[in-house]
Amino acid sequence: MENVKKDTGTNAAVPRRESEKDSDWEKSLADEEPQLEFDDEYDLEEYTISAEREDGKGELLSSTSAGDQPRKGGGAIMSDGIIDEDFAEALGVTSEVRESDMPYYDIARHRIIEIAGDDSFGRKVLVFSACRLPPVHQLDHQRLLQYLKHTLDQYVENDYSLVYFHHGLSSKNKPSFSWLRQAYKEFDRKYKKNLKALYLVHPTNFIRILWNLFKPIISAKFGRKVMYVNYLHELRNHLHMEQLPIPEGVRQHDSLLLQKYQPKTRKGSVSESQPLPDTQQFGVPLSFIKEHNYEVIAPVLRQAVTFLEQNGLDVEGIFRRSGNLQVVKDVKRQFNEGKPVNFNEFLDIHISAVILKAFLRELPEPLMTFELYEYILQLHSMDLESRLLGIQHMLLSELPEDNYTVLKYVISFLTKVAEKK
């Protein structure tokens, strides 16, 4: 029957407009709207949700809240009014994903290779821990090679660095030489091109022998990316230590090495616990100096050379005599703290020469690198022509670019000194 409303002035029935019907419906909804969120006095357990079915039959599905009730759609209305939906079940996905179903889980579970954030230059860092290699008879090395490639494939399109913790490699878990050779061939230019640094931590004679064996097939360019790291604290110059997943065995081994060789460390070198100021110049690698001074020629080196060129070329035995020990120590401290130093203030011109020698002596790795030591020894057994060719090859192909730049700067200065004698 059509709704009517009575006019107060007449008894005639007037049909209601559709807009008036909608307005009354919206008003009734507003009056009955429950205050679920902010009204603390509202009793959720007395609230009944009713909804008309969409099948057109007009039947109602009601859910009275007496505790947690099942709801159509896989969820349940909890005592606090929140619907606990099981979306995984609704999508047909099981909530439990077994690790054993992951690709290469049999290798990955050993955590031989891990991702360790970014280095100081924003490059992704991967860490390989030899101590986590299981015994040879328990590991499929071909599958290990596939897993390594699978992992690296995710990062090699961009620049990345690799850290190799050598401690823990023994005769029980050491891969065969043929496998190592195969691995080097498998990791072709795609993997080597964007590898910017390879840190060999705690190298032993085995590493050095292995390096010499592989040298004929390793390019000089790749060789310049390799860095020997004797102690963990040396990594601080390049990596964020707090991000590195360092195995406990590696940490303990590093502590033993520090205790064993601590008395032999060079004076003036930076200790493990001492933070490195950006102005540090003595006892730090060339890469640190380049990073914080925007050039590889350290300020102390340039200032000492400039002063000696202007004042010391005519001084006999300029590099033979030593300076006052306390003065030298104070000058080094001032340079390390970034304070200005004026060599003209010292009565002894030899102070600047001593400072220059101290800077070169306290480099963690000499300009002619530890790696080139054997090569240099071999030069002495060559005839003159072969020796000259060998030196040229060493300087242009084997010596790292930063070392070559500093060495050229120092040799140019020493040439001027020699010309005055």
Would you give an account of this structure?
Helix 11 packs antiparallel against helix 13. The model is unreliable at 1-15, 25-85, 90-97 and 263-273 (pLDDT under 50). The chain has 16 helices and twelve strands. It is of the alpha/beta class and 421 residues long.
Number of helices: 16
Q: State which percent range the strand residues make up.
A: 5-15%
**Overall mean confidence score, pLDDT:** 75
Low-pLDDT ranges: 1-15, 25-85, 90-97, 263-273
Helix content: 25-40%
Give the helices and strands as they follow along the chain. Answer: EEHEEEEEHHEEHEHHEHHEHHHHHHHH
Rough shape? Answer: elongated
- Strand arrangement within the widest β-sheet reads 8-9-10-11-12
Mind describing the biggest β-sheet?
A: 5 strands, mixed
How many beta-strand elements? 12
Give the CA-CA distance, first to last residue.
125 Å
SSE-based structural type: alpha/beta
Whole-number radius of gyration? Answer: 37 Å
Indicate the topology.
Blueprint: E1 4-6, E2 13-15, H1 18-32, E3 48-52, E4 60-64, E5 69-70, E6 76-77, E7 83-84, H2 87-90, H3 105-108, E8 113-118, E9 124-129, H4 141-152, E10 160-165, H5 177-186, H6 189-192, E11 195-201, H7 205-214, H8 220-223, E12 226-229, H9 248-261, H10 286-293, H11 299-311, H12 325-336, H13 350-361, H14 373-379, H15 384-398, H16 401-419
Parallel strand pairs: 9-10, 10-11, 11-12
Antiparallel strand pairs: 1-2, 3-4, 5-6, 6-7, 8-9
